[in-house]
Design goal:
Distance between the termini: 83 Å
CATH architecture: Orthogonal Bundle
Strand order of the largest sheet: 1-2-8-5-3
Helix content: 40-55%
Number of domains: 1
CATH topology: Cytochrome p450
Bound molecules: protoporphyrin IX containing FE
CATH class: Mainly Alpha
CATH superfamily: Cytochrome P450
Structural class: alpha+beta
Strand content: 5-15%
């Protein structure tokens, strides 16, 4: 008698009924719900995200590496990311294939170390404005400022990325306008994804049209900034150095293949994408880092001591100083382990594939659960403990390969990784050298995982002059 065919290997399927039953809890606490399901069924499962979207969710480092790096050609971003094209255009984050590669090759050199060293001044300027603002709120009668650290860091991170991109070509009013429009577009887009059943209502209310108009306004504002930048360049005296901002880098860049520059439309797309990709992620990382330091005063004092030792006499921190402040980097790394701003990233299989004997059908959507990797008890000792020392050189065990991916991995690794690490360290250093961060009586808010991992509600902290 012939043997019965072996069943096709597959990952466990969580029945739709189970996800539907837990959908209320999933809506309230998506991260806690996913953690529970993965702990029960295994590191990779088929499930209906939000009760509706069939998806393979994984926190298996080997599968994540397969998708992001080893077999990346067979995977594109999913419709969730591509949907942003409508409002922001096809920039690095939303582009695919040969077009993406050509753009990546053009833009990446602008983020190299040498270039970053030049941008540090612009970053520090924005960080100093925030510290100055804090100081102005203090007086003899008021030695402590209490505020929502997430709101404050959103402003700081926006200023840093907008100044790094546009230099002086945007005034205060335009910066605020830019930030408001980007926030409104993003909030609307997230809403249409989270509550797809409201889409007909949005159509009927003209909300799509209104946000398309905002996107056009945004483009006009950015176009104006480019024009001002070019006019200033033309009016500069002969021999004057061009500004050292990212816009100038993009204007100077030439394609390897034909030596041409980017079209204006492509430039607008890339600028929009840099602003959106480089703003909320950094703001979240900073807000959570301050919260963790406030609740771990011994770690905070260790960092303050490093700063006082390496930057005596209040000298301004330069890019070249950062390697002497490794603990600042480890704090940032550990904060992003516990609270990865990009907590989940998506891919779709563009062709059939296979991983460890499991066939993958074309069109399968993967949710690479970065938060799950970073909290995996099998990958990290005391995974829930804030312990920046685990990132120190020579610490054992070393952070697991493809188990720590705050910036993603493979060819589509965040192009702004070094930019972000520099900015985060600068803001921490400039703040902590002047202020001690303390918790308030309010509990640390839970997480609100949208596109990025925000705090759910205000993240109130106290800043006391040292
Ligand atoms: C803490 C801050 C940041 C975090 C956690 C972060 C995280 C990420 C992640 C995870 C990806 C990969 C997404 C995927 O593979 O689906 C990514 C891509 C990207 N990031 Fe960041 N990012 C940060 C800051 C920045 C900054 C400051 C910029 C620019 C100034 C930036 C620009 C980009 C761009 C353009 C891409 C797309 C790259 C490509 O596909 O070629 N990011 N980021």
């Amino acid at each position: 008698m012939a043997d019965a065919p072996l069943p096709t290997p597959s990952w466990p399927r969580i029945p739709r009924l189970v996800t539907l039953r837990s959908s209320l809890q999933a809506a309230r606490d998506p991260v806690g719900n996913l953690d529970k399901l993965l702990a029960h069924y295994g590191d990779t499962v088929h499930l209906f995200l939000g009760g509706a979207r069939p998806s393979v969710v994984t926190r298996d480092p080997a599968l994540v590496q397969h998708i992001l790096q080893k077999n990346h050609r067979r995977y594109h971003k999913s419709d969730l990311t591509h949907g942003l094209v409508r409002y922001l255009g096809k920039g690095l984050l939303t582009n695919e294939g040969a077009d993406w590669l050509r753009q990546r090759r053009l833009i990446q050199p602008g983020f190299h170390r040498q270039r970053l060293a030049g941008l540090t001044r612009l970053m520090r300027q924005a960080a100093d404005e925030w510290v100055q603002d804090l100081k102005l709120q203090l007086s003899d009668q008021k030695p402590v400022v209490e505020l929502d650290a997430h709101a404050a860091m959103t402003q700081v991170a926006f200023r840093i990325v907008a100044r790094s991109v546009f230099g002086d070509s945007l005034g205060e009013e335009q910066l605020t306008q830019l930030s408001d429009w980007l926030t409104a577009i993003q909030a609307f887009y997230v809403n249409t994804i989270r509550q797809p059943y409201l889409r007909p209502w949005h159509w009927a209310r003209g909300n799509y049209g209104r946000h398309d108009q905002l996107a056009r306004n945004l483009r006009e504002l950015v176009r104006g900034a480019i024009a001002r930048h070019e006019a200033a360049l033309a009016a500069a005296p002969a021999g004057a150095l061009p500004p050292n901002d990212l816009l100038q880098m993009l204007l100077d860049a030439r394609y390897e293949d034909d030596g041409t520059a980017m079209s204006e439309n492509q430039l607008l797309d890339e600028l929009n994408i840099l602003l959106i990709a480089g703003h909320e992620t950094s703001a979240n990382a900073l807000a959570w880092a301050f919260a963790l330091l406030a609740h771990h005063p011994e770690k905070q004092e260790k960092l303050a001591a490093e700063i006082a030792r390496e930057l005596p006499n209040g000298q301004a921190v330069e890019f070249e100083d950062l390697p002497r402040l490794p603990y600042a980097l480890h704090v940032v790394q550990e904060a992003m382990r516990l609270y990865p701003p990009a907590w989940i990233i998506d891919r779709t299989a563009t062709e059939t594939d296979e991983f460890a004997g499991v066939p993958i059908a074309k069109g399968t959507i993967f949710s690479l659960y970065i938060y799950g990797l970073h909290h995996h008890p099998g990958l990290w000792p005391d995974a829930e403990v804030f312990n920046p020392e685990r990132f120190a050189a020579g610490a054992a065990p070393a952070p697991p390969a493809y188990g720590y991916l705050p910036f993603g991995g493979g060819p589509r690794l965040c192009v702004g990784q070094q930019f972000a690490l520099t900015e985060l360290q600068l803001v921490l250093i400039q703040t902590l050298r002047e202020f001690r961060v303390e918790p308030t009586e309010a509990p640390v808010p839970g997480m609100n995982p949208l596109i990025t991992l925000r705090p759910a509600g205000e993240l109130r902290l106290r800043f006391r002059r040292r």
